[in-house]
Amino acid sequence: TTHFGFRTVPEDVKESLVGGVFSNVADKYDVMNDVMSGGVHRLWKDYFVRALAPGPDMQLLDVAGGTGDIAFRFLDHVKAAYGANHAANVTVVDINPDMLKVGMQRAEKLGYMQTGRITFQEGNAEHLSSIPDASVDAFTIAFGIRNCTHVDAVVREAYRVLKTGGRFLCLEFGSVQNPILQSMYDTYSFQVIRTLGGLIANDRDSYQYLVQSIRRFPPQPAFVRMIRDAGFWLPGKGWEDLTFGIAAVHSGW
Question: What tens digit of pLDDT does each residue of 7-66 get?
Fold first, then answer.
């Protein structure tokens, strides 16, 4: 068995349950993230891409990134740093076709598809069968890994597809250590977010799962051990807290 929020479910059921949540929220994904983070997710994602420090010819694999939030920031960053004639590109893989549909529509509308530097694929983060060994320079996953059934399998797949010296970078909600802040954060999460999810998206249950999934994800030190066990070298302690640990950037080579 495994967990789906605070529920215990069979492992072979979780994937479809998570899929239902993200199909429900796909059209309101930006609103969902604004509700979950008070709008701060936009700053976290900007910082995440700056931390990646993309080069002019980086081949990026962005996993669970269906709506394009990280991919678009990556392409914008490279263009701003190196001009329009760079050779960088990004492949976005997501298990959810509804999320991919939103991302492709956004990419078309915003002009990214016309550049030929972004592609979208449906795929499972735990089994990236379409991605060859040692084929990408960087692997990013932002606010997606906690929804996977086997988090350790995702990290191992990242290690497999990265070239020697390639970069693993994960942005995920974390554990707040300050007890006063933790109490305030819990109140916001379990009372305000669920209520807003019902009011804004008419989907209280999906938001309840998303909050619970954050609490069930391993705290930063435990996730770091998982990354190290997959074979990665970790700089320093292996992660950097954002906004008092509400989110964290995990890094490995």
Answer: 777 877 777 887 787 777 778 777 777 877 778 999 999 999 999 999 999 999 999 999
Across the chain, the runs of DSSP E, i.e. the strands, are 2-4, 7-9, 59-63, 89-94, 118-122, 136-142, 162-173, 239-242, 247-252
Could you tell me where the beta strands, DSSP code E, fall in 96-198? 118-122, 136-142, 162-173
Query: Which 8-state DSSP code applies to residue 91?
Result: E
pLDDT, tens digit, for every residue of 235-251?
999 999 999 999 999 99
The pTM of the full predicted model, rounded to 2 decimals, is 0.93
Whole-angstrom CA distances from 42 to 68, 102, 176, 200, 241 are: 13, 18, 19, 19, 16
Sole residue written with tokens 């795929």: 123
The answer to whether 86 touches 47, Cβ cutoff 8 Å, is no
Q: What are phi and psi of 165, to 5 degrees?
A: 85, 5
d(CA 10, CA 56) in angstroms, rounded, equals 44
User: Which 3 state secondary structure label does DSSP give 112?
Assistant: coil
**Where does residue 147 rank: exposed (0-12), middle (13-18), buried (19+ CB within 10 A)?**
buried
